[in-house]
Amino acid sequence: MPHYCDTAPGHETHSVYHDTEYGFPVLDDNLLFERLALEINQAGLSWATVLKKRQAFWSAFQGYDPRIVSSFGAEDKDRLLRNREIIRNKSKIDSVIYNASIICDFITKFGSFTGWLEHHHPLELDDWVAIFKKNFKFTGKEITGEFLMSVGYLKGAHRETCPIFSEISRLKPPWMRA
After folding, report:
1. Whether the predicted pLDDT of 2 surpasses 90
2. Mean pLDDT of 121-137
3. Residue 105 and residue 108: Cα distance in Å, rounded?
4. What is the pLDDT of residues 57-92, one digit of tens each?
5. DSSP secondary structure letter of residue 63
6. Residue 61: CB partners within 8 Å, gap ≥ 6?
7. N or C: which end of the chain has fewer CB within 10 A?
């Protein structure tokens, strides 16, 4: 199976994400929440589909502010299910809203979502999966692994021969500090 570093560079949808975000350390809670939500929404679909809908997701979930999203009620869920610009899957929408409340709990207990991740880091993927499944909805091995790679907590986003790998290395993502 080809690696993302083989297929993304130069691709109209994947290139910018590959070159400027994937595997780079993320500290902002809203951006971390966005990445988790995008990974959840990607399940069963292509990453290109999710990236093309990214701005619509950002708007629909109000900038991924976990405090706002955690307060979404029935009217908000109905609004999201009617929004043709996002992926309208009830389980995924419910999971994103539920997960926002969990992130709010982490902010209270650990100061931030990053604080919670740092509290548990470093772990092997299977241990991360167990912790994610214990706390979040709709997070199996693939979603958890991709989320953690995408925000710098697990190695593997880029091949060492990829030019982006050296850029990320200079930033010392959490997996390099393990």
Report:
1. no
2. 98
3. 5
4. 999 999 999 999 999 999 999 999 999 999 999 999
5. G
6. 34, 37, 69, 96
7. N
